[in-house]
Amino acid sequence: MFEGIVDFIGQTGYLGVFLLMVLENVFPPIPSELIMPLAGFAAAKGEMSVLGVLLAGTAGSVFGALPWYYAGYFFGSARLKKLAGRFGRVMTLSPRDVDVASEWFERHGWQATLFGRLVPAVRTLISVPAGMVAMPMRAFLFYSTLGSLVWTGLLTCAGYLLHGQYALVADYVDPLSKVVVLVVVGVYLYRLVTHKGASAEA
């Protein structure tokens, strides 16, 4: 995965960073923790500018959050609860989980969007309850952009500062990226096996 992302960024530049960050939000197993530091490496080597990398990564992150927002908006709590009741085991989600997510988001609002963008895994899914409660698009974009800017900035700076240890970082990041994928799959399988279903929670 490491070498593939390095080659892709090298060939496509800012557009590649943007597209990878879109995919990272739509399909989480491609982690931003891998993408943005590598883009920072490229900036440190003079292949791209730090500002350009930061803007491309942030824009991709926000753009990638929109499908999840609209999924929550168009499905809404009622439809999502019906889906959870019918396909809850596959979704590892119960109708009660939908209610809890909606209630929690309504209480925390913009703070959830802003700080949720700084938490791995949560940063992707936080857009769903934002859409479910019909958070105003202007507010959603503002706080998503702000949170994403901080997150991508930290990762880009880390990659820029560690560029002198490029090979050493590769030895750690590539296995780590595989671990991230395994953890995501493992959590899903655990929830799949332990999911009680709607009837058990009624």
Automatic annotation (TrEMBL):
Report membrane topology. Multi-pass membrane protein
The UniProt record lists the VTT domain at 30-160
Q: Where are the transmembrane segments?
A: 12-30, 50-71, 140-163, 175-193
Keyword Hydrolase in the entry? The reply is no
Tell me where it mainly resides.
membrane
What keywords are assigned to this protein?
A: Cell membrane, Membrane, Transmembrane, Transmembrane helix
This protein's source sits in the domain of life called Bacteria
Q: Where in the cell is it found?
A: Cell membrane
Name of the protein: DedA family protein
Species source reads Geopseudomonas aromaticivorans
- State the taxonomy lineage: Bacteria, Pseudomonadati, Pseudomonadota, Gammaproteobacteria, Pseudomonadales
